[in-house]
Amino acid sequence: MKPLKLTLCGWGPYKERQEIDFTAFNERGLFLITGPTGAGKTTVFDAMTYALYGNMSGEMREKNSVRSDFASPDTPTFVELSMTHNGKEYTVYRNPEYLRPRKRKTSGRISESKEKAGSAKGIPEGYTKEKEKAVFTGPEGEAAEGTSEVNRKVQELLRLDYRQFKQLSMIAQGEFARLLTASPAEKTKIFREIFDTDLYEKTAASLKGRSNSLYKEIMEYRHKMDEDLDMLIRAGVLDESGKTPYYEGILSVLEERSGETKEKWRLAQKAYAEKEKEVENLAGKLAEAQQVQSLFDKLEKELERRKTLESKEKEIREKEALLGRQEKAARLKITELKLISAQKKTRELDEEIKAIREEILTLRKQKEEERGFYEDREEILAGFEEKKRQAEVQERLKKCRKKHESRDRELKALQKDYLTAEAEEEKAKYSYEKIDRAYRHGMAGILADALEDGEPCPVCGSCHHPAPAAGGGDIPSKEQVEEYKEIFEEKQKRRIALHGKTAACAVQVQELTEQVAEAAGEEEHLRESLKGRKETVTAYLAACDEKEFTRQIKGYEQRLAVLEEKEKGLAGRQEERKLARREEDQCRAEFEEKLSAGGFTSPQEYREILKDEKEMGKLRKRIQEYHQESRACSEMILHLQEETKKSQPGDALLLSGRLAQAQKEKKLFFDRQGELGNRMWHLENGLSSLKEKQEKLEKSTTRYSILKDLDDAANGNNKKRLVFEQYVLASYFEDILLAANLRLREMSSGRYELRRVEQIGDGRSKDNLEIEVMDYYTGKYRSVRTLSGGESFKASLSLALGMSDVVQAASGGLKVEALFIDEGFGSLDAESLEQACLSLQKLVERDRLIGIISHVPELAEKIGNQIQIQKTNAGSSACIMLS
């Protein structure tokens, strides 16, 4: 990237638009930016860096603080950089976020709300915040906007990010002097950022982690193998003395014991099988003997049971006779229920007839008591209608009186206001006429003062003026007369309006008076009409309202209907009772006939025999069970006699003893077999587990030995105590020192040469980036901290230029077309300054544009191409001077 033109506006000390044209330096690419301290020399580089990446060149400057304090409120703040790259021209425009005056006024309420919102965010009244903006324009005019998008475009074009651009193109003030004397740890940090060697540190950390992980895995396998051995010891398979770290020997012992245990288990299994056959043979014989004995025992029990059943035969026959009588009584129960039902129906009809008669008597009594009011119902209803009309008239009378009182009060108030208005009108009329006369007399006096004998009067035209009007004192103005006239007319209008209102209100009061009298007469007529009615009617009207009376009339009529219905129903119920009585007599005769036929002497005997179906079922079940049990017992005796006909009871007791002894011996063989099987299982499982873990342990140990060597090599556990990242950085560092020495030898007339210290003084440290300098005047190496100020600057500049070359080569061969160096030349003597300029001039010969910021006068003499920054109390400006 090579700059063509840089435009600054409202930026730092540059209050107005300032353009810097770099094309003037293309033929001779070394130029100087000079000017007083604080004039804005470094600001040029800041603006260029901000245009490309939106960041400043130095660490102490912030992009949101670049707004010029000298700029007028209407001057914008922005930078614009035109540049070439690979023969094509590009433009980048950016402005930071800053405060500016509002461009136009908004409506009051909206403006007030915005002012309050701005004040809450710390924005002064009348200002607004200009947002950050970025625009990238390509060679064909294509544009990209937005900070992120422009940053992406610039990085794609230059193939450098902000950090790499600073390392390659910007030697910022003091940064490489700090690198020269920095500690090895600080250098490591700086170079790690420059050369992006985090990968090597991560690789070393990964090796360390994998090595530790494998070590833990090995120890875990050993721990698990020890657990397997402990399990074998607890199982009694292995002695405590057999547990040693020599796992191969343990495996050999376990394999030998496993073979012995298998042979013993096979012999125990064979003995167990033989004893099992003997037990099965004895068990079969015992089962046969026990089965025969069981048949004889069952036969004896069945014979005893038959005797018991025969002793119960008489009792069962008595129960069968009782069950027969109970079944007859149960059949008679249906006839009895019919009789009970007929008796119940007769009783219910008797009770219902009695209740109907009592109800009829009550209704007849009520009918007689209420006959009078029912006969007067028409007159009572008419009375209720008159009472309703009387209430309506009274309500109308009340409203009329209330409205009459209100209008009467309003009339009196209007009459009072009218009298007041009339008096005010007379007063205003008097005042108006008085001031009007004074005005006319005054005007006559004025005209009389202007009269002259022989001259015609402007009013009457006479030339003789025997008695002119005398002039008065103060004469009112025409405006005063008009004002009094307006007051009078206003009072007159008010009096006329009040007169109309008062007359209308008086008419309404008269109409309301007539309405009150009419309503009062009608109310009195209705009251007299109500007094003239029968006393019973009057009493009833006072006792209840029309709604209640209507309800009583309906109730009376309903009771009359009910009375009629009850009287008709009574005759029907009496007829039903005759039929029910006849049915009851028939059921009684049928019951007595069946009672005698069933062998019952009386109803009491029948009821004693009668049982419910549940008890009869129980008795029937017992009888059936007895007969079933008797049949089953007889059949079983016949069967057992047939089965035991050819058998004799055996000696089951002797066989049982022999079987118990054989089973005991079998259990001993089984336990021995299980013990040996368990021992064999523990041996085989333990041996298999140990073999598997031993195989994994050997593989992990092999991998660990390789990874551990790599870990030791990468993390500094070696003779040189050099870690992997330090080895890579040392390689870069050697290249940087080699490139730096090419310039330092020239700038120091061959006296000094830089080299990396190979021996580490502190055995605990693994950093190896310390620098020492070879002084060929003394032939000895010494620390760079012993160099003077000028010598340190030469070494720092050489180191910075060397780093630029190495970083450029490490970045894929990128060509750095512009290099900017900020300050530091003030510490050089004339010879050193001349040598530094020659070194820089050689860089220019490689088609580079090199800019130096300095206020050293000697540089201004040696470098003719200059950008001079002129500083005033109203801001700074820049101009280009060519040699």
Write a brief caption for the model:
The protein is an alpha+beta fold and 883 residues long.
Main sheet properties: 6 strands, antiparallel
Show unreliable segments. Answer: none
Beta content comes to: 5-15%
Give the number of helices. 20
Instruction: Tell me the Rg in angstroms.
Output: 69 Å
Going by helix content, strand content and strand pairing, the class is alpha+beta
User: How much helicity do the residues have?
Assistant: 55-70%
Strand order of the largest sheet: 2-1-4-5-8-9
Overall number of strands: 17
Q: Quick one: overall form?
A: flat
Average pLDDT works out at: 79
End-to-end Cα distance: 25 Å
Topology:
Layout: E1 2-9, E2 18-21, E3 30-34, H1 41-53, E4 78-85, E5 88-95, E6 98-101, H2 108-120, E7 127-130, E8 133-137, E9 143-145, H3 147-158, H4 162-169, E10 170-171, H5 175-181, H6 184-195, H7 198-234, H8 247-311, H9 313-375, H10 377-449, H11 478-531, H12 535-543, H13 546-597, H14 603-609, H15 613-643, H16 652-714, H17 724-747, E11 752-756, E12 771-775, E13 780-783, H18 789-810, E14 818-822, H19 830-844, E15 849-853, H20 857-862, E16 866-872, E17 875-881
Parallel strand pairs: 3-15, 3-16, 10-14, 14-15
Antiparallel strand pairs: 1-2, 1-4, 4-5, 5-8, 6-7, 8-9, 11-12, 12-13, 16-17
Helix pairs in contact: 4-18, 5-18, 7-16, 8-15, 8-16, 9-13, 9-15, 10-11, 10-12, 17-18
